[in-house]
């Protein structure tokens, strides 16, 4: 167990996962009253998801963060119907939620090529509008980035999440013996011998009180929302942030993590979860593991020993519990196999649900045909 409080003050880094933009559709073109001509519609502002774009690159390329589409052409003798204004296309990263200024989600862009109409152009002037054009839609929107990974690593600081990522993938995250080494999410790919790949997101450590914005707060948990599965990583020797805070055993850290996930969003607890118990090379590890397994088998028998506010309403059900050591390599191959199995089972279940839905649709359309 290692202490580490000094690094708490370190900054969030220059990773950006939220960007505020001004978007405005183009104004319509003027109508032509004498000949009844109609001005062109103003251009639209579109967000288009594209690989290899980051919010940082958008901010650097467009420091004013204003996106205005072209004005529609005026109606003229040569062209009574004015041409539409030029659309403004903004390329954004994959995994973006588009939010209004009031926080309401108005769109999502997940796959390359997904499009979202951010601001519609105004209508051109015509007989109906007394030949006066309309202005385009204007608004402030927020681009909110969530990583799309198969597995999200969730744990207290210093548990060895980054060490694990570096062990199972080619990623080179920073690893150090203090809390909050990781200050921005990192992605790594587990490559299996048959070329199967699974994407893992290493996230900054979570501490108790994260929901009240302690430590790095909850802001990173939003990335977990889109990961298919959770992998909790705990230090078998427990955790203590500083001399001023209480020591927590591995069992307590698991409950506290569950509680923080629950306080952030209860649905997170419905995701399939695995538990990796790390640092099994430490001298006290075997005894601690025996104790922990007893506690995990019958958590209810041990909850009365804890402070009430630490106890989550629901418990996480782990599909597998794997003792590991990123230092000696113990359990790493087994963990990789469990991750793969769990992802495959999940995909199979999704397929099954899809097949059932299709079958139901087929049956209902057949019934309808028969009734005719
Ligand atoms: N003994 C032992 N130490 C480990 C093991 N895995 C990681 N460590 C050490 O634990 C410390 C923290 O490791 P990190 O991988 O940086 O931990 P983290 O969970 O990413 O921490 P944060 O980024 O702060 O949340 C480092 O000093 C590692 O060398 C292990 O299996 N055994
Ligand atoms: Mg880390």
UniProtKB/TrEMBL annotation:
GO cellular component: mitochondrion; nucleolus
Superkingdom in the source lineage: Eukaryota
Gene Ontology molecular functions: GTP binding; GTPase activity; magnesium ion binding
CDD domains in alphabetical order: Obg (cd01898)
Keyword vocabulary terms for this entry: Coiled coil, GTP-binding, Nucleotide-binding, Nucleus, Ribosome biogenesis
UniProt similarity note: Belongs to the TRAFAC class OBG-HflX-like GTPase superfamily. OBG GTPase family.
Protein name as catalogued: GTP-binding protein 10
Organism, scientific name: Strigops habroptila
Lineage: Eukaryota, Metazoa, Chordata, Craniata, Vertebrata
